[in-house]
């Protein structure tokens, strides 16, 4: 969940977005529990992120290079979208418009069997958004270096 310990500008208000099957208390809590959510610094930026059709928050295993889909609906021009893998930038896109969609395959050989990915968004006004991570375990068929 998006939260801040800052009680002054510029980030007094932060937002959490949750994907749920229905707008009921139970389904919204299930969406939070399943980590199908994203956070922003207050702007209503929408982030959709999946790998091999597993939504953000998922944990899964694969023996192939994962397919990645990212869709961003900004509130202002998006300056940059970063795909983070294990704490480092795997791919960065300069956008300069309010909406963006990307698809790619991560063909980098994993350096370890368990990896995490998430999306970070920066708008031109400094507002930011982050997806929940997706955790991917690479099976032995995809040998790490």
Characteristic key phrases:
mainly beta; 10-stranded mixed β-sheet; 6% helix
Please summarize the sheet with the most strands.
10 strands, mixed
Mean pLDDT comes to 90
Number of helical stretches of at least 4 residues:
1
According to CATH, the fold-level topology of the domain at 45-136 is: Immunoglobulin-like
The low-confidence runs, each spanning 5 or more residues with pLDDT under 50, are none
Element order: H for helix, E for strand = EHEEEEEEEEE
Q: Please state the second-level CATH architecture of the domain at 45-136.
A: Sandwich
CATH class of the domain at 45-136: Mainly Beta
CATH superfamily of the domain at 45-136: Macroglobulin (MG2) domain
Write down how many β-strands occur, each being a DSSP E stretch of 2 or more residues: 10
Approximate helicity band: under 10%
Secondary-structure class? mainly beta
Q: Radius of gyration in whole Å, from Cα?
A: 16 Å
Tell me the span between the first and last alpha carbons.
Answer: 34 Å
Shape: globular
Relative strand content: over 45%
């Amino acid at each position: 969940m998006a939260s801040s310990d800052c009680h002054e500008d510029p980030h007094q208000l932060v937002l959490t977005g949750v994907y749920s099957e229905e707008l009921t208390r139970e389904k919204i809590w299930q969406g939070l529990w399943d980590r199908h959510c994203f956070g922003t610094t207050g702007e209503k930026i929408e982030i959709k992120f999946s790998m091999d059709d597993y939504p953000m928050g998922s944990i899964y295993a694969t023996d192939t290079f994962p397919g990645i889909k990212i869709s961003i609906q900004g509130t202002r021009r998006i300056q940059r979208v970063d795909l983070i893998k294990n704490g480092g930038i795997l791919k960065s896109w300069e956008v300069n418009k309010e909406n963006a969609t990307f698809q790619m395959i991560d063909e980098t050989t994993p350096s370890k069997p368990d990896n995490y990915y998430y999306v970070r968004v920066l708008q031109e006004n400094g507002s930011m958004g982050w997806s929940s991570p997706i955790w991917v375990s690479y099976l032995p068929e995809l040998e790490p270096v």
